[in-house]
Amino acid sequence: MNSPDDAVICSAKGCRAPAVWVLAWNNPKLHTPDRRKTWLACDEHREHLSNFLGLRGFLKDVVTLAEWEASPRP
């Protein structure tokens, strides 16, 4: 059983809500094209965080946390 310390929470500043979404991104000035950094988002902050990354050209993908956890990682 997971402890409360294992809870996956939203990356928005000050938010403690459970994460539902994974926003995969990279900064092409810092990262190789295949590298993916992640931010986690609750339903309330998904659009705001996506817009922040999208305006900078960093956002690569938005998927549910369940999809992200089920997908194979290198």
Written overview of the protein:
The model has no long low-confidence stretch (mean pLDDT about 90). The chain has helices spanning about 45-55, 65-70, and strands spanning about 20-25, 35-40, 60-65. Strands 2-1-3 form a three-stranded antiparallel sheet. The chain is of the alpha+beta class and about 70 residues long. It is built from two helices and three strands. The radius of gyration is 13 Å and the shape is globular.
Short note summarizing the structure:
This is Acetone carboxylase. The chain has 74 residues and is α+β, with helices and mostly antiparallel strands.
Protein traits:
single chain, 74 residues, alpha+beta, three-stranded antiparallel beta sheet, globular, Acetone carboxylase
